[in-house]
Recover the amino acids of this structure.
């Protein structure tokens, strides 16, 4: 069992080291951070969503922005669309599960906003559909995926595709990226801690 534990840590470290050496991914994370800062400065917001573990990551990132990361400061407007079970189940039951996020994006998002969809495979239809709607409304549509980007890569303005095919390793990198973005957004808007 110790070997299995060590191997999982080694896999994690290899993915993180690959990201660290990838100027393209680092540049995309910088771009995403700058666009979120611009959105907040212009009265926009961050809208984020995912399924399963990615839903938890979306909720986590929104929570860091609404509450605080390091600094005591005013809240930042961030919504995780996957947190309201009544809305999600109503849309899934009455319309389609593929519309659980798109329906919300239709009414909650405008051109000033940044919209992030998390999908490790990049093939979640409900994520793709919502990002299409966001992009059509003029919002910045961002996808966080695994290595291939899946079908989602064709529907976003920015693709942050983690260099892995392992769902746990991808999700670990997504939350690392989310923490970095939250810290830097907070710093750019409110100063250093």
């Amino acid at each position: 069992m110790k070997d299995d534990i060590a191997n999982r840590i080694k896999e994690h470290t290899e993915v993180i080291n690959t990201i660290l050496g990838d100027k393209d991914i680092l540049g995309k994370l910088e771009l995403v951070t700058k666009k979120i800062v611009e959105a907040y400065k212009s009265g926009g917001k961050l809208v984020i969503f995912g399924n399963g573990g990615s839903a938890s990551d979306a909720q986590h990132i929104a929570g860091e922005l609404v509450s605080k990361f390091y600094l005591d400061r005013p809240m930042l407007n961030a919504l995780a669309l996957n947190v309201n079970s009544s809305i999600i189940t109503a849309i899934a039951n009455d319309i389609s599960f593929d519309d659980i996020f798109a329906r919300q994006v239709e009414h909650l998002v405008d051109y000033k906003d940044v919209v992030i969809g998390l999908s490790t495979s990049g093939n979640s239809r409900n994520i793709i559909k919502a990002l299409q709607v966001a992009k059509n409304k003029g919002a910045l549509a961002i996808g966080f995926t695994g290595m291939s980007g899946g079908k989602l890569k064709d529907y976003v303005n920015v693709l942050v595709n983690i260099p892995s095919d392992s769902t746990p390793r991808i999700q670990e990198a997504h939350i690392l990226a989310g923490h970095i973005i939250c810290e830097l957004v907070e710093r750019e808007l409110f100063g250093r801690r």
Summary: The longest strand covers residues 140-145.
